[in-house]
């Protein structure tokens, strides 16, 4: 690999030609989205520039408290996003289950991945910890969001079946088993499909980034494989925790379905 | 068997005292919306009283394990729901919920005969008529061999004849097997003919019409 081409500010500015192009097309077609387009482009630029400087600082001054603090903020942001994304009311106990599942699911996979698979040292090395945590947490967030929606849809549309099962002497767990299994399947399916298409349909963003910044493709691929497996584990664990703890929140202590 | 002590359920039901006896057939009658289903659902703990206590064999129902209790007190609901799969699956699912072994085809077929449903075990329940579904659901309940059977009147607009057939089947079964039955029907003649005790519920209050000790 030859040296990496460093992009100058001027070169990046040249990429804004794409925004101009879209603006012209919008003007031409009379689509009134110019303001949003400009705001989102500028926002993206500013956010990334800020994060870039922040990361430079953090990578140059590794500190366990800072790493842990950032992970905490990421987890909180993910939990908040899942709550906001669900269109409807989530019960308090279910919210607690979601928060617990995202944190436990991603943290346990993260610890295993960083300390036993990659073996970073010191353990809080931000250069590895932060981007990998971002990928685990981001994907788990998407998976659990889908899981929560499907679980609630299932409980609402199949309420009569669950009720009938209870009448026939089923435990709440047995009564909700098919809803839970279907939800789990559907929630991890996107992650599995993305593994199938990998390398053929698209090169994953992380790998592209690594290759562009000079890492040999074989190293990039090794990382990508390990990370995909880690993501699969984190998503699956997060969703399964949410389902196994979450179904209980639909029942009261007398094993009766609550209104939700 | 069951004893109600100052039981209330929201403002729907108010039962200061009621006794349901072991080995008897007790029938609840009353106009639609008077609270019959509500009372029945309290017996298998699908609902819990908002006030007062229900005793079951001298234990407060509230202190008993709910799932264990529901396995002793099985209810044929007003709108029995069919599960996915075949008639065989629908008969077996109750046994599975009770964590018992599934029935042999021979056993299941003899149950179908008992509830007068002449269908192959592999048939999908979704092709059955309302009355046939009701009888399949009855077979599912009888297979569980519970000590107490609760029978709600079918809410689907089934003809009186179908309802009478079902009541007769259940009554015959509980008499032979020496079980306790609590049922709901709007048919006064069925109530008179088939039951030991008749309780009328009107606007959430119980009144004994025949043979009740309280
Ligand atoms: N889930 C419920 N929530 C609130 N009210 C209910 C509910 N189910 C039934 N009711 C009300 O309780 C009363 C008694 O209902 P129910 O026990 O089904 O009567 P019945 O079986 O005698 O026709 C009715 O006024 C009904 O509208
Ligand atoms: Mg009713």
Structural notes for this entry:
The complex is a heterodimer of chains A (260) and B (214). Chain A has 260 residues and is mainly alpha-helical. Chain A has 2 domains: 1-61, no CATH class; 63-250, Multidrug efflux transporter AcrB transmembrane fold (Up-down Bundle). Chain A has helices spanning 9-15, 17-29, 34-60, 64-85, 92-118, 126-157, 159-167, 172-175, 177-197, 205-212, 217-246. In chain A, helix 2 (17-29) packs antiparallel against helix 3 (34-60) and helix 6 (126-157) crosses helix 9. The longest helix of chain A is centred in the middle third of the chain and has 32 residues, at 126-157. Chain A is globular, with a radius of gyration of 22 Å. Chain A starts with 8 loop residues before the first helix and ends in a 14-residue tail after the last helix. Chain B contains 7 helices and 10 strands. A 6-stranded mixed β-sheet of chain B has the order 6-7-8-3-9-10, sandwiched between helices. Chain B has a 4-stranded antiparallel β-sheet with strand order 2-1-4-5, with helices on one face. The interface between A and B is medium-sized, with 17 and 26 residues. The structure holds adenosine-5'-diphosphate (ADP) and magnesium ion. Adenosine-5'-diphosphate binds next to helix 1 of chain B.
> Are there runs of chain A of 5+ residues with pLDDT below 50, and where?
none
- Ligands: adenosine-5'-diphosphate, magnesium ion
CATH homologous superfamily title of chain B = P-loop containing nucleotide triphosphate hydrolases
The averaged pLDDT of chain A comes out at: 91
Major protein interface:
A-B, 17 and 26 residues
Amount of beta strand of chain B: 25-35%
Question: Mind describing the biggest β-sheet of chain A?
Answer: none
Gyration radius of chain A, in Å: 22 Å
CATH architecture of the largest domain in chain A: Up-down Bundle
Helix content of chain A: over 70%
Summed up, the helix count of chain B is: 7
As a percent range, the share of helical residues of chain B equals 25-40%
Q: Tally the helices of chain A: what do you get?
A: 11
Q: In total, how many domains does the architecture of chain A comprise? A: 2
Task: Indicate how many domains the architecture of chain B comprises.
Answer: 1
CATH topology of chain B: Rossmann fold
Q: Give the N-to-C terminal Cα separation of chain A.
A: 58 Å
- Provide the residue-averaged pLDDT of chain B: 90
Provide the gyration radius of chain B in Å: 17 Å
Please write the string of helix (H) and strand (E) elements of chain A.
HHHHHHHHHHH
